[in-house]
Predict the structure.
Amino acid sequence: MKLSSNLPRLLLTAALFASVSSCSENLDSSGACPILCPPLGGEIQTVTLDAVTIDTTVQSLSGLGTEPGLLLANRGDTLDTRVIVRFDTLPDTFVPSGGTSQPITSVDSAYILFKLDTLSIKGAEPVTIEAYDVDTTADDTTTAAVVALFRPDRFMSSQTFARAQLVDSLKYYISDSAVLAKIQNHQRLRIGLRATGIASSQMRFFSTEGLVPPAMFFRATPDTTTKPLTVELQSKTPVGQSILALNLADYTVVAKAPPAAPGSTLAAGGLPARRIYFRFNIPSNIIDSSTVVRATLLLNQISNSALDPTDTVSLVPQVVLAGRVVTDPEKASQIIASISADTLTLRPGDSGVTNVELARAFTLWRTTQPDTLPRAIVLRAVREGLVPLELRFSSSEDVNPALRPKLRISYHSSVRLGLP
């Protein structure tokens, strides 16, 4: 994909956001930064525009297995996610204490060590985690093929944890005989974990992408003086696709997700994670010949009670740096830069008007022509891919014009703060 030759300049301009935009969001320009923000004087004009030309929901992550966490959830008919870990290379020899290398003929105390985000835990009742053999020759990226392997003839083991046992390091013991059989038959070990229990539960393990990957440990002899063997995650498939294979060393499978948002509704967050792409048509006189002191995207939030409606989700707007040659909104939404350190925190179950501040984006747009860099932003969840909660908003296709997204801009037309 060829990007605009102006991209280096755009990145340089983005670096100036912290200084210039600190003035653009303060209507009182006296004293704070006299060089960058000279006294405005006169009248500030405010207009509300139907400026959105494109608004759409797009996928947020680059593919299966790229999530920074592994979500294990049993939320009844609302949410069911499984965790897959792959150990495609298993040791077949070991060195006993004081001895020499010999073949592995037994496996003792095999377990997988997970690092658990304790703040992600939901549910106070005990939870049972079941392990299944999910090795298959079917398409690695086919969710249905993997979910179908969670069946009785593939069952390996189970372990029940009380709420107090769910601490930051979680040892999940698996079948010693199952591990030994894989070693002796020179097979790969691929395990799928599923949460069950009398009540709903949810927890999140750190993943390879979260820099704390799970690992397996076992002894090749009951002799406790012999050091346990460590087996790291590895996926050798899909063959010839090394990056995808690396991602699939551990990943989350969504067996059941909450109902998707209607096609005319904008959605951010959720699983699989999504974000919202907006493109605007803004009058050139506002961008080129004015000083924008405030710009607000007005959105109508739609209540979503499907999952944890009173929890909170933080959103952040980011400016799109993809040039006009990138016409696909989903691809363009991956080439972005921060325009604000502030986040917007909302509850999925709330509804009504929501304000998203975009003044800093105008600093960048002022330095480029719209045929070089479209006036576009992305609205995404701060913890994208980590939480299943989804925020919803009315789109430009809403039957009620009053609920459609609008852009409110406050500007002064007689002051220029152009870059040299």
Summary: The radius of gyration is 26 Å. The chain has two domains: 7-62+260-412, 80-256. The longest strand covers residues 108-122.
